[in-house]
Amino acid sequence: MSDLTAPSAGNDRGEQSSLSAHEAGTEDDVRDWIALLKPRVMSLVVFTGMIGVVVAPGHLHPILAFTAVLCIAVAAGACGAINMWYDRDIDAVMRRTQSRPIPSGRIAAGGALGFGIVLAVGSVIVMEVAVNLVAAIVLAISIGFYVFIYTMWLKRRTPQNIVIGGAAGAFPPVIGWAAVTGSVDLIPLILFAIVFIWTPPHFWSLALWANEDYRRAGVPMLPVVAGAKETRKQIVLYSLLLVPLSLVPWFLHFSGALYGGTAIVLGIGFLVCVARVYRDKQDEGGNSLTNDAPARAAFKFSILYLFILFAALAVDRLIG
Questions:
Q1: What is the dihedral of CA 156, 161, 165, 170, to 10 degrees?
Q2: Which terminus of the chain has fewer Cβ atoms in its 10 Å neighbourhood, N or C?
């Protein structure tokens, strides 16, 4: 006669199955909240902020330096979460963004907004308490610029949204520098300008092959408003500004030959990529006949360009 108080093997398997399903659900929830932070975008922001810390003159305790970079990361994630909250309507109609946590219904819009606000406020407070007031002020300005100027004002109103809004992503090296020095000087402003000028050709390369998505969502990106041909021309013009601008730290003797040589090689590579975008086979309306393959390649190279350029600056400074 079986013992009715003892769990059966079937019950064991059922409990294990339920536990596994619960763990899988928890992992999915965590991944969704992380996705709100836009980790891919955050990685570049964190990296340029870290370079600002590394190349700044003076010394910051490693724990405080880590705290400063962490605050930059958290603030970037907060901006991503608030951006997803505000753009949830257009994200729902764009193929590239339909699977994001809010439009797919996996996270409530109000929860995402609250999450973003808490992270934004917390990052500024910690930066002020642990590091210094100047870095906290610049961090707060960067958050406000991204949320209110770019996301809520520019993005849906003007094709210059990326040009002006690019300032939001250019703040991290300034914040990193301010964390060490407690001031904002010429060199971090030059680094700001490099990222600022880099942003339009980087993002317009993406916009060329995501053109239909933006058109469907009613976002006035440059290819939607001015056409693909004009967008290609603007990509070239901004790239021609970017390459000499990237050499300014070398001209000012802030960096040495390692950075200068790297900037020249990368600049040539960047110009080759955008030249291919400009010469891409097009129809009479300027639309690509190659599925915007050169634009996709330019977009990917632009990310590598900024990573290597800033890494070279840091290595050059450390060696020098």
A1: 140
A2: N
